[in-house]
Amino acid sequence: MAKVSQWWQSLWMACTRKIVGTLIMLEWFLFKVNARSEYRITALCRQLDLRTFLPVVTKAQSASAPTLLFPGYLFIRVDPYSPRWRQVQHLDGVQALVRTAGEIRPVELSLILSLKRRLKPKATKVLQIPEPGQSIQLNYFGFEQIDAIFEEPCANERCRILINILGGERSLTVPIQAVV
C-alpha cells in the first residue's frame, strides 16, 4: 500500500510540475556525511547555490573550537525533483539520505527554525567582578540586599564572599550573578 501511495504521490508531483511549469519545492533534508567532512560539503553545496544548516554549539567561556551538535550529519535545502537532488547525493563525502520508515521525508521547517533559534548566541552581559575586600550587596534566594565582602572568584562562574550572619562571619560560595 505504501508503494502505491508513493507512486501516486510522485505521479501527482510530476504532473503538477508539467502543469505549473517551474514549481520549486525547496525542502530541508538530513544527509549522513563522512566524519569531519561537514564543512567541506557545506562549501560544495554553496557552489551549487544550495543552503545548508550545520548546527554548531559554542561555549561562551571556553576558547576551544565550536563543536558540532550532530557530527556526521548535515541539513541541506534542496528540491527533490530538481537535477540538484542527484548532484547532492553524489557529492564526495555524502553517504546517504536519512529516511523515515524507509521513505524520503523532508525535515519540518519548524524543527530547523527551532534549532537555529536555540543555537543563536545570546547577548552576554559583561559582569564587573569586584576586587577582593570590596563591599558588595548579595541578592541570592532568601538573601536580598544583604551587605557582604567579596573574597575571591571561584570556578564555574561562582565566587566566595564573607557575610556577617548569626553573630559571626560566614564564608559562602554563590553564583557571580548574585553579587551586585
Characterise this structure.
With 180 residues, the chain is an alpha+beta fold. The chain folds into 2 domains: 24-119, Alpha-Beta Plaits; 135-178. The chain has 4 helices and 10 strands. The strands form 3 sheets. A 4-stranded antiparallel sheet has the order 2-5-1-6, with helices on one face. Strand 7 and strand 8 (143-153) form a beta hairpin. The chain starts with a helix and ends in a 5-residue tail after the last strand. The model is unreliable at 17-21 (pLDDT under 50). This is NusG-like N-terminal domain-containing protein. Keywords: Transcription. Residues 27-108 form the NusG-like N-terminal domain.
> In terms of structural class, how would the helical and strand content be classed?
alpha+beta
CATH topology of the largest domain: Alpha-Beta Plaits
Strand coverage percent = 25-35%
Compute the number of structural domains. 2
Tally of extended strands? 10
CATH classification class of the largest domain: Alpha Beta
What percentage of residues falls in helices of 4 or more residues?
A: 25-40%
Q: Can you write the helix and strand succession as a string? A: HEHEEEEHEHEEEE
Q: State the shape.
A: elongated
Spatial gap, N to C terminus: 66 Å
- CATH superfamily label of the largest domain: NusG, N-terminal domain
Strand order of the largest sheet: 2-5-1-6
Number of helices: 4
Largest sheet report: 4 strands, antiparallel
| Average pLDDT taken over every residue | 81
Uncertain stretches:
17-21
Rg over alpha carbons: 27 Å
CATH architecture of the largest domain: 2-Layer Sandwich
